[in-house]
Amino acid sequence: MSNKTQELLAFVNQLPVGPAYAPIYAKGQVFGKHGDVSTGKAPYEKAHHAVLSPADVALLIQQKPAVFKAVGLFTGIRSDGLVILDVDANLSTLQKRWGNTLDGAPRVTSTKKNAAKFIFRVPEDQRSKVKGISGKVTGAGYEVLWGMQGVISGEYPGSSDGKAPKGFYTLQGSLDVVPEAPDWLLAEMRAAKDADAPAQGLIKNRKGLDFSGRTEDELFELVQDCLSVLPHLGRGTEDYWWSVGAMVAESLPNEKGLMLWAAWSCEDPAFEQEWADGNPCESKWPHILKRAGRAGNKGLGSLIYLADQYDAERQRFRESSRKTLEEVEASKVQRIQAVHLDYEEVIKRAKALQELENPAEMAHKMNVLALEAGYRDAGALERLLIAQMQFEQQDDEMAMSKLLEKDLKFEYLIPDLLPCPGTVMIHGAGGDGKSMSAWTIAKHVARGIPFSVRGDLVPVQKGPVLILNGDQSEVQVQQQLRDLEFRADDPVTVVMGWDLNWYFRFTKLIEKHRPKLVIIDSITGCSRGSAFDENKKEFASPIYWLANNNGRTFPACTILLIHHANKTGGFRGSTAIRDAVDEVWGLKRPDKKQLEQTGANARLITVEKSRAGRDGSKLLMKLENDLTFSLADYVELDTESASPASVVDRVLQRIRAAYPRSVSRSDLAADPLCGGSVAGIKKATQRLVSRGLICVSGQTDGNNGAPATPLFQAISSREKPLNVCPGKVDPLVRLESDPGQGVEGVPAPLDDLSTGTTPRDTDLGCPGKEASRIKGSGPVGQLFDVSPRENERSPDELARLRAEAEQLWG
Q1: H or E element at residue 389
Q2: Against a cut of 0.85, is the pTM above it?
Q3: Is 63 helix (H, G, I), strand (E, B) or coil?
C-alpha cells in the first residue's frame, strides 16, 4: 500500500460520524453498468443511496486502493445541512466582496490557483427554503453544492483546461466544527428556491395516499420539495432519471410537470453536454405522458417515499406543502379507522370470492374488499389468504422429529433433468427458442415420451401440463403448439394473461389440474402487477413463494420459468431471481467448435446453477428435417479418446452397456474403462441412483464369507438384447462413437463392432475374475473385458484389492 493511500486512510479515519461520505473513483477507472470512465470526481455508486460512514469508506479504499484514491462529502439534508461553497476561480476578488465571512470555515484546496471550497452548515429552519446554485447561474466563478457531492481529500486529477497540474486535495480545518452559513449565502440559496415558485406556472407505491381534490399549485409545491433532496447519480442511471420523470408526470401531466423535471435534471453535471445541445427532457416527456394514468404506476406517493430515503425528518417541505401532506395523511388515517371488518369476516369473504369464474370480476371484488378491510390492494389480501392456509396446515413450525417422520420423496419428472418438486429457470435472447425448448419438454411429459439422457432413452413421468402465459398473444401460442405438433387430446391446459402475484388462484389451479409440469412464460410478462422493477430483490418474491410452497401449499410439481436474457447473455434483473430457483439454464446458439457436432439448426442449453450438482450439464435442441423439434441430453466427449470425461458418465455407460443384466461395484471397479478410485465409483453409483438413471436391483450372493453388496441396473426405455460377456476386443475401442447408432456423439453399446450384433455366450468365452490395474479396483464380474496387463498381478495382490473393495462397499 502506497504512502499516499496510507495518508488518505488516516484522513478518513479521523472524520466525524454523521455526514454522508463517498470513496471517489480514480481518473480513468471504468465504473457503472454502462462502462463510464471516471474523470477523478465520480463517487462510488452506492454512496448515492446509502449514508457511508468513515469506516465504510476506509474499508472500500483498503480493499481497492488502485480504484479509489480520494474521498468526497455529500451535502444537503442527509448530511445534517452541510453545504459547500465551491469557488473555481476569482477567489481573491470574491473574498474582497464577502469580507471575513469565510473565516473559520473548513477549506479544501488543490493545485488550482485562486480556487478553494468552503464548508458551512445551513440552519435547520432554513433547509426547506434553500437550493443549490450552479456556476452558470452565478456567472462569477463559484457554485453552491446542496444535495450534491464535493471531493475533500485525495488525488486531484488536474483542471479540465490543463492549466492546473495533477496533485492532491487538502482539507484545512475540521469537520467537527463547521460554522453556520453566512447570511449572504443563505439569501442566494433562498432566492434560487423562490425562482422555481409555482407562480411561473421506484421504490414503494404509496397508493394509500389520495391527492385527488388538491389544487395544481399544492401538487407543484409537493413535487418541487421532493425533487430538492433527490440526488443526481450521473452516467449509467438513465432508468432512475426516467422513473423520477414518470412519478412527476403522474401528479402533473402538463407543462408544469415538465418544467420541474427539467429543472431538477439540468443540475446533474454529468449531463452538461446534453443540455448544451438542448433540453433532453422535452423529447422524453411525450413518451412518459403516454404511460401516465395506467394502473400500478408510481405517482406522488412514491416520489414522497423516495425523497424520505434522503430526508427522513422531512425538513425539505415548506410550511404550505407540509400542511397539505399532513391533511392528506390524516385523511388516510381516518379512512382506515372507519373500518370495522374483523379478521374472520375478511377471510370468509375472500375465500368466497376465489370461487368466482370470471377473473376480472374476482379481481375487482378483491380490490373492493381489500380497501374495505384497510389493505392497500388485493395482493396484500391474497398473501393474507395464503398465510391462513399455511396456518391451517400447521407446517410452518415443526420439531425435527416431525419433519423426519414426514413421508417426503424427492423424485425426477425426467431422470437427472427435472426434479419434482423443483423450480427451474431457462433464460435466453429473444427468438433463440426458449418457449420451444420448454414446450418440447412439455410434449415429452404430456405423452410420456422417453427422453434421451446421457445418450440413452429414459422413462418420463406422464401427466398433465399447465402453461401460464403472460408473454405472447393467443395466435403466437397457437402457432408454436402447432409447430411442435401438439394434439387436441394432449393433457395440456393454457391460461392466458397470467400474473405471478395470483398466489391463491395458482393454488386452486394446481389443485384442479394436478399437473406434473407447470410452465410460466415469462417471468417479466407475468409480473405486470409487481410494484418493483427487475433489479430489486423484491421482484423475486413470487418465485421464492413458488419454490417454498411447492409440495406444501399445493401438490408437488415441476415449475419451469422462462426469462429473458440481458445484453451480456445473462438473465435480466436481480440475482435474487437466480437464488430463488433450484436450477438455472442458459440457452445460447452453439459456437463454431460446437457447430461441428450439433449442426446449424440447434441450440445448446447449459445448466449454470444446480442444487443437485448438475452444473455444466447441457441439453441439445434441434430442428429436425421434418420441421419438428427434438430435445436431448448433450454429452461433450473427451477430445482425445472420444469417451465420457467424468467417472459418473463412464460408470453410467458401462451399466447401460450391460442392460438388462445387473452390475456390482466390484465389476465396475475391475473394468478398465470405468477408471476412478473405489470411493469414486461408490459415489458415482450413489449419484446415479439419486438422479433416477439406475436402480438397485438386488444383492450379490456374498460367497466365501464376503458381505453382500448391491447390484445396479440401468433404467431405460429402450428395448435391448441381452448383453453377455464380450470377447477379447480392445476395451478402448468399445467406447468409440458410432455415427450410425443412437444420439450423435454418444458411445455405442458393447456390441460386436464388425457385425453390429451382440455376442453370445456360445461365441466368446467369459474372462476370469481378475482385477484391473486401476487404483483401488475390485474383482471383475461376468460382464466386462479386462486389460491383458491384469495377468501381471500376484494372487496376494488380487486378494488384497478384493478385500479393500468389499470393506469399502459393504
Answers
A1: helix 378-393
A2: no
A3: helix
